[in-house]
């Protein structure tokens, strides 16, 4: 009855998406790459394809291992070859021992005749054990290095791609799936060593069997084949399921993190969101469990079937041995050695198939990493290009158009403007009018699809982008609150410079963050992350003073402040605008994005954006003098709220 249920569960299709997933995320979260990867996994996990792909897989792993630690790799290789030779020698010596034991003569004579071979076999067993431990030690040295190398490869690429790649959903998924690649590369080392060991042992056993009786060789293969098929089948289902459920797992983790995170702590309690999310988590986790159960049932059945077939083949082999023995074509000593060789060989063949299969399964993840590497290289911020002038006399937007990939409407449409060096320029406009997008193009983070952005005479399309970034300091609405010390949070504005407490303190004094340095428990060395012991938390406004100190520390030619004062109290806000504007006195160009009309009225030029178009430009006075200007309307609306009028 139970078995029937198991059978039914094992062969049914994947559980449907949970109701909670629909409710929270608007539908089934599935790995988009899924179809391609799924089909590809099916093709690639066919036994013959797996065997054919073996040399390539091993080659790739060995290259990575050589790059990580060539000496350790050599040690592993030699130790494994040595073990293979020792095992073959061991089998042949066993044959000699058996021959001596089954020969005619007294027991003492037979034992004496068997003794030299017995001693040699013992020595070989010791050699084998020493080589195995050497191999284990070298593999242990190699594995973490390979994982580190692969992780660094992954992170370096991730940090070097264009911003639009990071915002592109398909690329992000590749980024997510490739994260398993480094651990998989590490696992491949162990599997490679295991497979190598298996090959040498089989060669030894097969050699001995061929000498004894060639008929036994195909029977050896017959014992191992069903187990190999079973292992492949299980791996195929596991990989397909993992790829298909990757987003569901991530979403369930996200929901559970939301219950415990500090940011959501208030709403979780006051709005009782905790209970709601917990129920959704339960629902999603149950769906995942159903999928896990389905996989486990399938695996149990497959392995049972494989074991039965393999057992039948083993019976056949021993029957063949019996026939050879009875018909006198093999003596008892040879039959004993053959039985031993069949056992060793079939165990090694099964292990080899499992290792090849592990190699293959892990290689699918390593290939995700390779695919990511290729995609990331294609989308990398190009190196080289024309150097940009340190203080360009102007930055020009010529008829610039930009549209985000998943949007119909352009975020910027035919924008032309000039920003003079050393001036203070403000960008205003309703939410979604394109201010932040314009700023990203200005900083070289996005490239226009139409028109040009020029730094002096240099088109940003041809400029050395890293050089452009060197000249820019950005403080945006969601600036990073690094979970590091106060000192590092300021110094990270220019991370390559050596520590300079004086410079950090000057930057802090500029923004008012020096008060934090004086009052926090460990001064500038206070960790600004509550999740760690001794960590402190800052208020939103205090964080903004840290952000501004970072902006100052960077000492860039072009300073961009996107909503820099939203969390500041009125006094701090006025002071903050004054300070940012004062940066232009040092010859820096300042671009300010803000909804606080009072704060930007002293800008040299104010640009007003509306639905991606530049609709007005001028000084505060000029724009206020135009009776029907959008700027005037926005300004008066805000002024009215304070009852101040113009
Ligand atoms: N990463 C993105 N992917 C897709 N669309 C985006 C992205 N960022 C912005 N947009 C869209 O581009 C348009 C302009 O957005 P942008 O952020 O530049 O406006 P904004 O003027 O800075 O708005 P706000 O005042 O609300 O910050 C909006 O319609 C927005 O939804």
From TrEMBL:
Q: Membrane as a keyword?
A: yes
> Gene3D superfamilies from the entry?
ABC transporter type 1, transmembrane domain, P-loop containing nucleotide triphosphate hydrolases
Localization annotation: Cell membrane
Give all residue intervals belonging to the ABC transporter domain: 395-636
Which residues belong to any copy of the ABC transmembrane type-1 domain? 74-361
Q: Where are the transmembrane segments?
A: 72-93, 113-138, 188-209, 215-235, 304-326
The way this protein sits in the membrane is described as: Multi-pass membrane protein
Q: Which PANTHER family match?
A: ATP-BINDING CASSETTE SUB-FAMILY B MEMBER 10, MITOCHONDRIAL, ATP-DEPENDENT PERMEASE MDL1, MITOCHONDRIAL
Name used for this protein in its record: ABC transporter ATP-binding protein
Give the species: Streptomyces lavendulocolor
């Amino acid at each position: 009855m139970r078995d029937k249920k198991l059978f039914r569960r094992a062969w049914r299709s994947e559980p449907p998406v949970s109701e909670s997933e629909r409710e929270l995320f608007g539908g089934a979260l599935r790995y988009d790459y899924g179809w391609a990867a799924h089909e590809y996994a099916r093709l690639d996990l066919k036994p013959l394809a797996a065997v054919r792909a073996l040399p390539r897989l091993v080659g790739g792993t060995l290259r990575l291992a050589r790059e990580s630690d060539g000496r350790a790799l050599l040690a592993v290789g030699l130790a494994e070859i040595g073990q293979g030779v020792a095992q073959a020698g061991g089998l042949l010596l066993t044959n000699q021992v058996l021959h001596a034991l089954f020969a005619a003569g007294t027991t003492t004579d037979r034992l004496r005749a068997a003794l030299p071979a017995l001693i040699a076999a013992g020595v070989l067993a010791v050699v084998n054990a020493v080589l195995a431990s050497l191999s284990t030690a070298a593999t242990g040295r190699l594995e973490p290095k390979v994982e580190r190398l692969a992780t660094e490869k992954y992170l370096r690429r991730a940090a070097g791609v264009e911003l639009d790649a990071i915002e592109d959903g398909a690329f992000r998924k590749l980024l997510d799936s490739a994260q398993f690649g480094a651990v998989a590369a590490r696992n491949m080392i162990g599997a490679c060593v295991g497979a190598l060991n298996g090959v040498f042992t089989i060669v030894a056993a097969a050699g001995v069997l061929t000498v004894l009786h060639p008929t036994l060789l195909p029977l050896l293969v017959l014992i191992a084949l069903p187990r190999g098929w079973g292992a492949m089948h299980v791996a195929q289902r596991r990989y397909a399921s993992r790829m298909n459920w990757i987003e569901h797992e991530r979403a369930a983790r996200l929901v559970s993190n939301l219950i415990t995170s500090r940011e959501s702590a208030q709403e979780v309690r006051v709005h009782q969101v905790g209970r709601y999310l917990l129920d959704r988590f339960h629902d999603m986790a149950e769906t995942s469990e159903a999928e896990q159960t389905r996989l486990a049932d399938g695996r149990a059945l497959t392995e049972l079937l494989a074991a039965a077939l393999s057992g039948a083949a083993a019976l056949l082999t021993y029957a063949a041995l019996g026939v050879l023995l009875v018909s006198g074509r093999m003596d008892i000593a040879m039959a004993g050695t053959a039985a031993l060789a069949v056992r060793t060989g079939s165990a090694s063949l099964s292990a080899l198939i499992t290792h090849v299969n592990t190699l293959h399964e892990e290689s699918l993840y390593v290939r995700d990493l390779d695919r990511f590497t290729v995609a990331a290289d294609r989308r990398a911020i190009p190196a080289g290009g024309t150097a940009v002038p340190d203080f360009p006399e102007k930055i020009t937007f010529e008829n610039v158009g930009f549209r985000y990939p998943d949007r119909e409407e352009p975020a910027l449409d035919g924008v032309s403007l000039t920003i003079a060096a050393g001036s203070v320029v403000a960008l205003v406009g309703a939410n979604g009018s394109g201010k932040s997008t314009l700023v990203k193009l200005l900083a070289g983070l996005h490239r226009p699809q139409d028109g040009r952005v020029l730094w002096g005479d240099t088109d940003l399309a041809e400029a050395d982008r890293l050089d452009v970034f060197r000249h820019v300091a950005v403080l945006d609405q969601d600036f990073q609150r690094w979970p590091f010390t106060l000192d590092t949070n300021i110094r990270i504005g220019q991370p390559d410079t050596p520590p300079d407490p004086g410079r950090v303190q000057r930057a802090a004094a500029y923004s008012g963050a020096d008060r934090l340095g004086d009052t926090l428990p460990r001064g500038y060395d206070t960790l600004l992350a509550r999740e760690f012991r001794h960590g402190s938390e800052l208020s939103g406004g205090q964080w903004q003073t840290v952000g501004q100190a970072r902006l100052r520390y960077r000492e860039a030619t072009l300073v961009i402040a996107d909503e820099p004062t939203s969390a500041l109290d009125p006094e701090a806000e006025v002071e903050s605008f004054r300070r940012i504007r004062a940066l232009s006195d040092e010859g820096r160009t300042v671009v300010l994005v803000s909804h606080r009309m009072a704060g930007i009225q002293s800008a040299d030029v104010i640009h007003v954006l509306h639905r991606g178009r530049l609709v007005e430009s001028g000084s505060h006075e000029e724009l206020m003098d135009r009776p029907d200007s959008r700027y005037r309307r926005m300004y008066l609306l805000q002024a009215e709220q304070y009852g101040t009028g113009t």
